[in-house]
Amino acid sequence: MRQIEREIVSGLIFSRDGRFFQGMKDPRKGGVYCDCWHLPGGGAEAGEGRETALAREIREETGIDISSCKIELIDDSGTGESRKVLEIGEEVLCKMRFFVYRIDVDKNSTDIEINLSDDLVKFRWTDPKELPNLKLTPPSAELFKKLGYI
User: Fold this and answer.
1) Which pLDDT score is estimated for 30?
2) N or C, which end of the chain has less CB nearby within 10 Å?
3) How many domains does the chain have?
4) Residues of the chain with pLDDT under 50
């Protein structure tokens, strides 16, 4: 099996009321960790800066414009790997390095308009105390342990 490497940017999007955004992918479409709660984000394209990729991915997946939000890199040490089926039908081993940014939105979670893309089919605003009861991606679980949430 062929191996590919990807830099993945993701956003820990916090609302003013202390909740953060998580989404779930459609398991029928495959992809990486499709049965777990995700932080929104994705791979940076060739030549694209990480913060530019972050803003694009957040907008594409959630509809949230983060251009006026406070953004801070909070972790760049996460890694993961998963089998992935490419659009051309080839199955590959995807080795990922994660760059996680905290994004603070100056609105309560109930006031933030969400427009999911076809990548995410469900979303939730999560209180960090709920994390031990959720099925998380392995990199997210590792991140939340580092942050002291679980």
Assistant:
1) 65
2) N
3) 1
4) none
Q: What is the maximum alpha-carbon separation in the chain? A: 45
Q: Which domain holds residue 8?
A: 3-146
Instruction: Quote the tokens at residue 123.
Output: 């979303």
Q: Alpha-carbon distance 8 to 85, whole Å?
A: 17
Among 139, 141, 144, which Cα is nearest to 7's?
A: 139
Measured between alpha carbons, how far is 48 from 140 in angstroms, rounded to an integer? 23
Domain CATH for 74: 3.90.79.10
CA distance 122 to 129: 20
Give residue for tokens 């990807």: 6
pTM over 0.85: yes
CB 7 within 8 A of CB 41: no
Sort strands 91-104 and 20-25 into parallel, antiparallel or unpaired.
Answer: unpaired
